[in-house]
Amino acid sequence: MDIKNKRISDDEFQKIRAEVLTQWPTGKDVNFQEAVDYQKQFTGDRRFGDKLIKAKREGRTLIQPRAGVALINEHIELLQFLQDHGEADLLPSTIDSYTRQNRYEDCENGIRVSQQEGRSMLNGFPAVNHGVQGCRRVIESLKTPVQVRHGTPDARLLAEITFAGGFTSYEGGGISYNLPYTKNVPMERTIRDWQYVDRLVGEYEAAGVSINREPYGPLTGTLVPPCISHAAAIIEALLAAEQGVRNITVGFGQGGNLIQDIAAIRTLEELTNEYLKKNGYDDVEVTTVFHQWMGGFPADEAKAFGVISWGSAAAALSKATKVIVKTPHEAAGIPTKEANAEGLRCTKQVISMLADQTITGSHLEEEKEIIRKETRLIVDKCFELGEGDIAVGVCRAVEAGALDVPFAPCRANAGKMLPARDNDGAIRILEPGNLPFTQEIKDFHKAKIAERAKYEKRDASFQMVIDDVYAISKGRLVGRPRK
User: Fold this and answer.
1) pTM for the structure as a whole
2) In this predicted model, what pLDDT tens digit does every residue of 419-452 receive, in sequence order?
3) What b/e string do you get for 324-337 counting C-beta neighbours within 10 Å, with b at 16 or more?
4) Given the residues 171, 214, 236, 242, the one annotated as active site
5) Per the CATH hierarchy, to which homologous superfamily does domain 10-354 belong?
6) Where are the domains of the chain?
């Protein structure tokens, strides 16, 4: 597939659009101008991007849960509960797994069985099947703006229906919704399909309706070095900006070491702005999202609240624009609405207590500089491999392992890089694989891992990686060997 980082032409976009809207019968209800007029009634704090920009300028961190069930009325009830009892500043509609794979017939069956059983038999909200009017019922029942959160490699029809349905933010991208989520989908295909999504956002932008876009920051969620997720976010921001997106939220998944997490969020916004401006996109508003711990959780709810609180503190001290909140039921599966609201209120309490506090110091500045150097090396290598075209370059970089996401299931991913924690719990790189690092940076990581190995009286090995993956669920940050 021939791709490049160039705005899709009007003729080509309309040709593709005609095909996309026929993928499921609800697509016929999408009328662009009518959708624009509908979107324009939502202003100020009813628009996701506007609320983020306002919070950024006021130095506040907003809170947002994950949530989604199969039926419209129950979904409305859930979101209203999180809005009113969870005190959520922003709301999601987490989309079900069948929709993520474009299996709309299976969604229809899931909706039917959910109605028969009196409970959700899908793990999210099947927005495509509910259609434009179903989505509008959800939006109109709330006073808080709502984002589509999913995990869909081909999210074109979902975008068409949810934008027309009044959603004002859309998560995902051609890298972040491919490598962590798929096995056999080529990078070129997801990049191309997500260019369509971003081109659609650009159409709305040109018509006077700003829709927030958010690359999925955590990627595979566990032990992802900041430079890897930063590079993916920056590249997705560049791809989106070329198609006309002007409001972007870049994200990072909590690592667990407070200084590194703060450094990550602060450098993420800085570097994203740097590359956008460097490539001629001077009018893009950038905000940040911090994802609370995405790995294994302790089953004990009291201990789970400890993990949630730690993520809340990191989000507040990093001055992230928003934080995605976990629940005390993470280890058990889909949470009750009450548990979801408890996680939100816990997070809001911690953020409120830390709102006026900040962290500075030489250790933080050193960590920021390491992240800057590593991220620039990866992004610049992607440009080099693409001979100046970042869409081409990122596909070649993934194939070459210059951008390598740990634990990703996708066959396109090299899978040669291995992360592990250092003795202070910061995420370092045990095996660099083909990452385009200088010898100085490789030596830095090697020394950090060696310091931990010496402390633990064992060799640096893959066992460290395994121990670190399970550590937080067992009550520690660093996976120390049992004594």
Assistant:
1) 0.97
2) 999 999 999 999 999 999 999 999 999 999 999 9
3) bbbbbbbeeebbeb
4) 171
5) Methylmalonyl-CoA mutase (3.20.20.240)
6) 10-354, 416-483
